[in-house]
Amino acid sequence: MRVAIIGTGYVGLVSGACFADFGHEVTCVDTDAAKIATLSKGVMPIHEPGLPELVGANLRAGRLVFSMDLAGPVRNAEAVFIAVGTPSRRGDGHADLSYVYAAARDIAAELTGFTVIVTKSTVPVGTGDEVEQIIRRSRPDAEFAVVSNPEFLRQGAAIRDFKHPDRIVVGSNDPRASEVMAELYRPLYLNAPPILYTGRRTAELIKYAANAFLATKISFINEIAELCEKAGADVQEVARGIGLDNRIGSKFLHAGPGFGGSCLPKDARALIKIAHDHGTALRVVETVLAVNDVRQRAMARKVAAALGGHLRDKNVALLGLTFKPNTDDMREAPSIPLVTALQDMGARVRAYDPVGIEQAKQVLTNVAYFSDPYACAEGADALVIVTEWEEFRALDLARLRSVMARPVMVDLRNIYRPDEMARHGFVYDGIGRPGMPETSS
Ligand SMILES: NC(=O)c1ccc[n+]([C@@H]2O[C@H](COP(=O)([O-])OP(=O)(O)OC[C@H]3O[C@@H](n4cnc5c(N)ncnc54)[C@H](O)[C@@H]3O)[C@@H](O)[C@H]2O)c1
After folding, report:
1. Closest atom of ligand 1 relative to the 150 alpha carbon
2. Residue nearest to atom 11 of ligand 1 (CA)
3. Residue 228 a catalytic site member
4. What does DSSP assign to residue 87?
């Protein structure tokens, strides 16, 4: 099938490359000239494992093309995906739909023959109706259907997630459009992921409800972690103990510095606004966000506590800055409020991240960057593990200790075991775990 994808960010680029890999003819369109120029040469604007190889192979096979011009690709396409950003609107937390509506207007002008317009961007309930209106107003003659097909991929594992999804959600009020969608995803039938056909508004809401639920699990386990610290219990064992219950599930029960990234915070904020617009309140989601906001800055107090309560003129070394491993994405990364809070408390911040330093430089100020963990740790009064990159799992602890001013580690991802760290002479604090072995009374 011929497919046009409007917006070549994480979602548009990964979707385009995967659809091309299935055998479809795909054109990825973007208004960002620099992005299109580098992609056309096979150079990736983002760090995503496996993506350079997938894009390169499909570029060479001629199934994947990058373009700034939307007209030709849309005219030829049977399906046009809208995959532009829907960031938080400045000031009020609503999803900013200006990019989606601009794309809809551009698409409308070029429609020929029956075309399915698929919203892959995460959009509030009813956006599909508005996209339909925009197109209908400017092209009363056009034959088209608007479908919602939200994306659930995780950055860092995006290709696997796209090719082996837990489910595919198709929100469509038009049977012809549903057939086109079934044909597009037919190459996945071998893996037999469930395809859930729903109404368009339901599909739009499924995406937000999914992200809000994931955020809820994280805030929940983070609060339980706080209780564990006070009560002398171990949050990792609590998480395992509850996660083995199939009704709960073990995923997203890792206590840490709070959730961030390009989706969970913004989608939770937008969902709260959607609910208000419909005259209802999502108090659980409101609390989930409030818990998260407080938690992120509280991590700086944890570092201060490990250094006796004060950070003035202390050197604090951070390992990991991106919001999760295997991505260079810094959008709403927990490291950002952490760095600000550490600096507010008078600390000097040094940092290392395997791939995120260039992105970090655009959002963090007065941070000294280093090209490996040991250089970063040199002279540090405390080392803080912020993002659980694989390469931090087996650090040379003796070497670290020898270069640091004080052997203090605050492990916000619980990568290390307290007894192991004590053996290496570290003052160690993790998340939601007793510092000393539990004694039975
Ligand atoms: N990043 C994720 O992990 C993820 C996962 C699931 C869903 N989503 C959702 O998918 C959508 C896209 O997210 P993203 O992270 O890929 O965004 P992004 O910001 O990385 O990319 C968006 C791209 O759209 C381009 N663009 C904007 N307006 C355009 C227009 N009129 N024509 C052509 N291109 C245009 C921008 O230049 C940019 O390259 C969002 O709604 C997001 O919530 C993201």
Report:
1. 7
2. 121
3. no
4. P
Radius of gyration (Cα) for the chain, nearest Å?
A: 24
Helix/strand/coil percent split, the chain, to 5 = 45, 15, 40
For ligand 1, atom 7: residue with the closest CA: 151
Show the tokens assigned to 299. Answer: 């991590």
**Distance separating alpha carbons of residues 184 and 178, to the nearest angstrom:** 10
Sheet holding 427-429, edge to edge: 367-369, 348-352, 315-319, 382-385, 408-411, 427-429
Residues 6+ apart with CB under 8 A from 32: 8
**14 burial level (CB within 10 Å; 0-12, 13-18, 19+):** buried
253 CA → ligand 1 middle, Å: 27
63 Cβ inside 6 Å of ligand 1: no
Identify which of 264, 273, 380, 374 has the alpha carbon closest to the alpha carbon of residue 324.
264
269 CB near ligand 1 (under 6 Å): no
Concatenate the DSSP letters of all residues of 227-242 into one string: HHHHHT--HHHHHHHH
pLDDT tens-place string over residues 179-205: 999 999 999 987 778 999 999 999 999
Kindly give the pairing relationship between strand 195-198 and strand 115-119.
unpaired
Distance 120 CA to ligand 1 centre (A): 9
Task: Please give the distance, rounded to the nearest whole angstrom, from the Cα atom of residue 122 to the centre of ligand 1.
Answer: 9
DSSP 415: -
Instruction: Indicate if ligand 1 lies below 6 Å from the C-beta of 151.
Output: yes
pLDDT band at 30, cuts 50/70/90?
very high
Q: Which atom of ligand 1 is nearest to the CA of 103?
A: 31
CB of residue 84 inside a 6 A radius of ligand 1: yes
Q: Is 29 in the pocket of ligand 1 (CB under 6 A)?
A: yes
- In sequence order, what DSSP letters do the residues of 272-334 get, joined into one string? HHHHHHTT---HHHHHHHHHHHHHHHHHHHHHHHHTTT--TT-EEEEE--SSSTT----TT-T
Whose C-alpha lies nearest to ligand 1, atom 15? 10
- pLDDT tens per residue across span 64-114: 999 999 999 999 999 999 999 999 998 899 999 999 999 999 999 999 999
Residue 323 CA to residue 68 CA, distance in Å, equals: 30
Q: What residue owns the CA closest to ligand 1's atom 10? A: 121
Residue 30 near ligand 1, beta carbon < 6 Å: yes
DSSP alpha helices (H): ranges in 378-433? 397-403, 418-423
Q: Is 143 exposed, middle or buried (0-12, 13-18, 19+ CB in 10 A)?
A: exposed
C-alpha 108 – ligand 1 centre gap (Å) = 19
| Number of residues that make up the chain | 441
